[in-house]
TrEMBL record:
It comes from the Bacteria. Residues 192-293 form the HTH araC/xylS-type domain. This is Transcriptional regulator, AraC family. Keywords: Cytoplasm, DNA-binding, Transcription, Transcription regulation. InterPro entries: AraC-bd (IPR003313), AraC_XylS_family_regulators (IPR050204), Homeodomain-like_sf (IPR009057), HTH-like (IPR037923), HTH_AraC (IPR018060), RmlC-like_jellyroll (IPR014710), Tscrpt_reg_AraC-type_HTH (IPR020449). PROSITE patterns: HTH_ARAC_FAMILY_2. SUPFAM superfamilies: Homeodomain-like, Regulatory protein AraC. GO terms for molecular function: DNA-binding transcription factor activity; sequence-specific DNA binding.
Length: 299
């Protein structure tokens, strides 16, 4: 490769971009009262738009009811089951997306609740993009032009979700809710500790992955941390850390030169077999199978 000329080094350049954004399973469906989708987990985010009727979702042992125009964002690796509880039936749109940018995934996890808030300015944009995607289901053929148009909508959806995140950050900076501020501080601390660990995954740094270490660093008790965090995020701090581990593991599995045992160690598992069992719980497939599926899709 030729060396970069000095004059070129001094120019302001656009960033190199190598982002993999995948989507699958996009569909619209009408179901009758009593319909039930059994408990499942996915390796990707799942976004749903309720078109008509009422859906009941069991998520992390909590029950939520969603109605028309609600937009639901279910994180990867989180068990959930859906049921139609309206007499007139249920109509919904659903699709999954996977983005190999851990930082973006962390932002979505931290600032996007299960039910997106309609008061957030980005909600309308997100809803409209989903309606545009629904319109494509009327097609009986998907050529390259249609696929490019759908990919553009996906990129717009990612941008709108990040706009949603930015508004949530802004609202947080102006809030006086003690529990909300504390929960965000806990999430940030867990993220920072995990990031530090992945940079040096040594036995000496294993305490960074301990919830007791996080609580102590914030000068709060473990029970206070659990209560405040679960109130805002509907999951435990440990579950949130597991989500970060899962996202980071998926990112590294896209890099063929990294052995699975190396990835296991980087995300905090000394035993590769333990990591494989845990990954299978998150993704319903082994790390080896996940890597193979991603490499096959990239061909």
């Amino acid at each position: 490769m030729n060396p970069t000329p000095e004059w070129l080094e001094q120019l302001v350049k656009l960033p190199d971009i190598d982002i993999n954004l995948k989507t699958f399973g996009g569909h619209k469906q009408k179901v009758l009262s009593g319909w039930r989708a059994p408990q499942e987990t996915h390796f990707a985010f799942e976004i749903m738009l309720i078109i008509a009727g009422r859906q009941r979702t069991i998520f992390e042992a909590s029950q939520f009811d969603f109605v028309a125009n609600d937009v639901i964002l279910i994180p990867p690796g989180r068990a959930h089951e859906n049921t139609c509880v309206s007499g007139e039936g249920l109509e919904y749109f659903c699709m999954h997306f996977d983005l190999d940018e851990p930082e973006v995934q962390q932002q979505l996890l931290m600032h996007c609740p299960l039910l997106l808030k309609k008061a957030n300015p980005a909600y309308q944009v997100i809803s409209q993009i989903l309606q545009h995607l629904i319109a494509f289901l009327a097609n009986d053929h998907f050529g390259i032009k249609e696929k490019i148009a759908i990919e553009i909508l996906l990129l717009e959806l990612m941008s709108a979700l990040l706009d949603y995140v930015e508004d949530e950050k802004l609202q947080l900076s102006h809030t006086d809710s003690t529990s909300l501020v504390l929960a965000k501080s806990i999430a940030e601390s867990i993220q920072q500790n995990f990031r530090m660990y992945t940079q040096d995954p040594s036995e000496e740094n294993e305490e960074l992955l301990s919830m007791s270490y996080t609580a102590h660093s914030l000068n709060i008790s473990n029970s206070t941390m659990l209560t405040a965090f679960k109130k805002v995020y509907s999951c435990s701090p440990k579950k949130y850390l597991d989500q970060l581990r899962f996202n980071q593991a998926k990112f590294y599995l896209h890099q063929p030169k990294l052995a699975i045992c190396e990835i296991a160690e980087i995300v905090g598992y000394r035993n590769a077999a333990h990591f494989t069992r845990q990954f299978r719980k998150w993704a319903n497939m082994s790390p080896k199978d996940y890597r193979g599926a991603q490499l096959e899709a990239a061909k």
